[in-house]
Design brief:
Blueprint (H helix, E strand, L loop, with lengths): L1 H28 L4 H13 L17 H4 L19 H7 L16 H12 L28 H12 L10 H13 L5 H9 L5 H10 L2 H14 L17 H12 L4 H10 L8 H6 L16 H21 L18 H11 L13 E4 L6 H13 L2 H13 L4 E2 L4 E9 L3 E16 L5 E7 L5 E7 L6 E7 L6 E6 L6 E9 L8 E11 L10 H12 L4 E4 L12 E4 L7 E5 L18 H8 L7 H14 L20 H13 L5 H9 L2 H4 L6 H6 L12 E2 L2 H12 L53 H5 L18 H9 L1 H18 L3 H13 L5 H20 L1 H8 L8 H14 L3 H4 E2 L1
Antiparallel strand pairs: 1-11, 2-10, 3-4, 4-9, 4-10, 5-8, 5-10, 6-7, 6-9, 12-13, 14-15
Helix pairs in contact: 2-5, 7-9, 7-10, 10-11, 12-19, 14-15, 16-17, 16-18, 20-21, 20-22, 25-28, 27-28, 28-29, 28-32, 29-30, 29-32, 30-32, 31-32
């Protein structure tokens, strides 16, 4: 018996050993995947010393040609197919600590060394990161689901692999509140809630979704999301942080979302609307996306430095928002982790380096909206030019009246004699002094325009050609002005490009005073039709129009050919140390530049919206998913690169991205509709302790979304349930209540003037945004200062948030308004009023145990306010004795408590 058992064991061990050998052989023959197995090891252990920033020993693992190329030793470190000959592998296993790699970290594990060894043995093939491969049509999993749509097939397939099942559908009111917030940023109306509750229609939820997508408030909600990306603000930023009238861009976004503008058009309009054929005012306004960069008005700063900073911000923001990649570090060196070379950054910068804005105080160019004053004169001028001019002259006049470009700013002057650039902004030359306006393309121009101001009579301007002793091109008497005035001065025509010397005189002035201040110049031709009857009248009207101050908005305008800038590489990212010249191009690691696209911002936008681009659709789909579920399929919205999170459901992401482009034709509403109609979205958010432990972030989507409302939604919900919300759309920013002395504004004297005309109750998307002093309650709930693009708000949970909703006068006022409704609907029955208030706020009946707690709070407050009527008056903002004032004050305390409940501040 013993002999038999021993034999059995021997046979078993032999079989087991053979199986182990076979498994090991299979493992060694298994193809190593570069992107998922090799690249993470290189990023973790190697690339900090052998990558884009440093290339110790002349060895880099960022690009294949670098990894396989010769090192400082004269030999390659990696010999494909021969790990035994590869210095790369030898160094990983070397016993000598001076030679072993990595030198400054822990040695690689045996498993990691095995992966790299097998990779080299198999030929050291490079692979592409998943995000840089264009999405393709993905087969839908062939599984049966009980409810939902194709999205659920992808999700439930993964749940089954993880041994999990999906949660049941949430109750009607939870689902209605969830989808209403997600699509409009507001809770549902009482009438919508009533109809949905009573409806027996199996398509009732679908119809609710369709109605919410058509709500005008849909555009406001999704605009709130986009404003963080666009770093939208009502001020310029930096030290002075003066006001900026750019709110029409916000209104353009609301219209774009409400009209369901295709995302490719949405992108092109914002990046290059001004370069489209015959651009409309709306397309110009869309380009304010990249005029949201900060402008530095502080005296003593260099405009070119901060123009360059703005252009660099546009590169980073454009790639952040539309491509989801981190590119800012590439201004100094090749990307440490992703396949973007140092020169790639400056080639991208070349696309956006040729716009007319130059960090000037007045923020030119600006689209002039004449309908805010009068369009009759503009029409008369246009008619005249159409009658007497050719097509080119008509277009030139139209563009000049729209944006007053091209013009030359005073900061271009140099070679000052007895003069300077005042406050580093405006030209100021004393009597007898001069300056040079270098390299002006004149080409026979007959008029020199100048925007200036002076309060002193007797001044003159001379313009001389090429030197202070050169030929005089004009002499003009400078009349006194009432503020700034643009004038047109006859100019002797000269061909070619020349330096102009400007000489200012006024002997009557104090020698220390400037003859005048000058903001800009422009060189133009006479209006066509000179000498025709009515010419002088039209010419005068043109100058009147130019001197009008209509509403305006900063926009993007491309430099004309003669003003084109050369784009240089900045050595080590220093804008003062310019390297070689580069021309516009896109990273070779992404899709090729479209063959017939222009090498300007329009071409860049067309490249981004090409269906071959691997990132644009994925990034936007992921952003929409994150807005609805709280976490993106790729959690790192801001980084789709190799250091970002891998997708939780990669096939689902590609399925939706491909469908977004090809089936939905880039329309966002049908994409959102498909997501919110999925069973995954409609699940209850309740989770067992076991599920919470296994999937705390709900990456597997075995339950519905549950997370705190955004800063904007917290405010808007309070206003809505209290009945105070002003639903007016559009218009200038508003100033609701803010404590005194929050703004410590320097230089410009701006102050916060609290609205009292009902505008204080408008939605948060309209609240005035000041970069150096954001609205306090917004910041407490993780809002952005908007100084730079913010791709993802990281939700926090701090005592400051409770202090805001418990004490901020805005929230106390909404609590009082809700309490008045509770008193009215409850009559003399406090419990009935409390039940009504809870139902109004949360769309759910109040449980008896919660009622007991709230009623206890009510009774305690009631006793206190009956003893202290002055405190009650203070709380309910009255100086007179009114009926039931103690009851109203007590209900205000209860309403405030309801509006601070977790379920009120959370979307679940």
């Amino acid at each position: 018996m013993s002999h038999y058992s021993t034999k059995r064991i021997t046979v078993f061990l032999s079989i087991a050993g053979s199986a182990g050998i076979i498994l090991a052989a299979c493992h060694s023959q298994k193809k190593v995947d570069f992107s998922t197995e090799v690249k993470p090891i290189l990023n973790k252990h190697c690339i900090s010393c052998h990558g884009g920033v440093k290339q110790s020993g002349g060895f880099s693992v960022l690009f294949r040609e670098e990894a396989m190329g010769n090192t400082h030793s004269g030999k390659p470190a990696i010999i494909p197919g021969h790990p035994e000959k590869s210095e790369f592998i030898r160094r990983l296993t070397c016993k000598d600590p001076k030679e072993r790699m990595p030198q400054k970290g822990e040695p690689l594990t045996s498993a990691e060394v095995d992966v790299l060894t097998r990779w080299v043995k198999q030929g050291a093939e490079w692979g592409e990161h998943w995000a840089y491969i264009p999405p393709k049509q993905v087969p839908i999993p062939d599984i049966k689901i009980d409810a939902g749509n194709n999205i659920d097939k992808f999700i439930q397939e993964k749940l089954k692999k993880e041994g999990l099942s999906h949660a049941p559908e949430a109750d009607k009111m939870t689902l209605l509140r969830r989808v209403s917030f997600d699509l409009t940023g507001l809770p549902p109306s009482p009438e919508m809630a009533r109809q949905f509750t009573e409806s027996k229609d199996p398509q009732a939820y679908e119809k609710i979704v369709d109605s919410l997508l058509q709500s005008p408030h849909y555009g406001e909600r999704w605009t709130s999301m986009w404003l963080d990306l666009a770093r939208y603000s009502d001020t310029k930023g930096y030290e002075r942080d003066e006001g900026r009238r750019i709110w029409r861009y916000r209104d353009w976004l609301i219209d774009a979302f409400n009209s369901d503008m295709p995302y490719d058009s949405f992108t092109i309009n914002q990046l290059a609307g001004d370069l489209l054929p015959h651009p409309t005012n709306a397309q110009f306004i869309a380009t304010a996306f990249n005029r949201n960069t900060m402008t530095n008005d502080e005296g003593g700063t260099q405009d070119e430095e901060f123009r360059t900073a703005a252009v660099m911000d546009r590169v980073a923001t454009t790639m952040d928002v539309f491509q989801g990649v981190t590119i800012a570090c590439v201004q100094c060196h090749s990307h440490p982790y992703d396949p973007f070379r140092f020169e790639d950054y400056y080639k991208l910068l070349a696309f956006v380096n040729n716009t007319r804005d130059e960090d000037t105080h007045m923020e030119h160019p600006k689209l002039r909206l004449y309908d805010s004053v009068s369009t009759s004169q503009v029409k008369e001028i246009s008619s005249w030019v159409a009658q007497y001019g050719d097509t080119g002259q008509q277009q030139d006049m139209k563009e000049f009246l729209q944006v007053l470009e091209p013009k030359v700013h005073a900061h271009n002057c140099d070679e000052y004699i007895n003069g300077a650039l005042l406050d580093t902004k405006y030209l100021g030359i004393r009597s007898g002094g001069s300056c040079r306006l270098p390299q002006q393309k004149l080409d026979g121009k007959t008029q020199m325009f100048m925007n200036y101001w002076t309060g002193s009579p007797g001044g003159t301007l001379e313009v001389r050609l090429d030197s202070l002793k050169g030929r005089t091109l004009l002499t003009h008497q400078l009349a006194t002005t009432n503020g700034r005035l643009a004038i047109s001065m006859p100019f002797k025509p000269v061909s070619g490009t020349h330096d102009l010397y400007l000489v200012f005189r006024n002997p009557a002035l104090n020698p220390a005073d400037a003859v005048c201040g000058v903001e800009w110049f422009a060189f133009r031709n006479d209006l066509p039709g000179k000498g025709k009857p009515g010419y002088d009248k039209v010419n005068t009207e043109m100058m009147t129009v130019i001197n009008q101050n209509p509403d305006d908005i900063p926009v993007m305008i491309e430099n004309p050919p003669f003003m084109q800038r050369a784009t240089h590489v900045f050595e080590r990212g220093n804008w003062l140390v310019k390297g070689k010249v580069v021309t516009p191009d896109v990273p070779a690691s992404l899709n090729p530049f479209p063959a017939n696209a222009p090498r300007n911002r329009l071409g860049l936008a067309e490249w981004m919206t090409a269906t071959q681009n691997p990132l644009t659709a994925r990034v936007m789909v992921n952003r929409c998913w994150e807005q609805l579920f709280g976490t993106g399929i790729v959690e790192t919205l801001e980084d789709f690169g190799t250091q970002g999170f891998t997708p939780s459901h990669p096939e689902l992401l590609d399925y939706l991205a491909y469908k977004f482009m090809h089936d939905y034709k880039w329309h966002i509403k049908p994409l959102l509709r498909e997501i919110v109609l999925s069973a995954a979205y409609k699940q209850t958010s309740n989770a067992s302790p076991e599920l919470t432990e296994k999937d705390p972030a709900n990456r597997l989507l075995a339950r519905g979304p549950r997370f705190r409302l955004t800063a904007e939604e917290v405010r808007d919900q309070a206003l809505t349930v209290s009945g105070l919300l002003n639903r007016k759309l559009y218009g200038p920013p508003i100033m609701p209540y803010q404590p005194d002395n929050i703004w410590q504004t320097v230089y410009n004297g701006a102050s916060w003037v609290t609205a009292t005309d009902g505008n204080q109750y408008r939605r948060a998307v309209y609240v005035y945004q000041k970069r150096t002093s954001p609205y306090p309650s917004m910041i407490s709930f993780d809002g952005s200062s908007r100084e730079v693009c913010l791709q993802r708000r990281i939700r926090t949970n701090t005592p400051l948030q409770a202090l805001v909703t418990l004490n901020d006068p805005v929230y106390m006022e909404t609590a009082l308004a809700l309490a008045k409704h509770m008193l009215e609907n409850g009559g003399n029955n406090a419990a009935a009023g409390i039940r009504w208030g809870y139902q109004k706020a949360l769309y759910q009946p109040l449980a008896d145990n919660k009622l007991a707690v709230l009623q206890k709070l009510y009774n305690q407050a009631l006793q206190e306010y009956r003893k202290n009527p002055d405190a009650a008056k203070k709380l309910i903002k009255t100086t007179d004795n009114i009926p039931q004032q103690a009851e109203l004050a007590a209900l205000t305390v209860v309403a405030n408590a309801i509006m601070n409940l977790d379920e009120f501040l959370t979307k679940s």
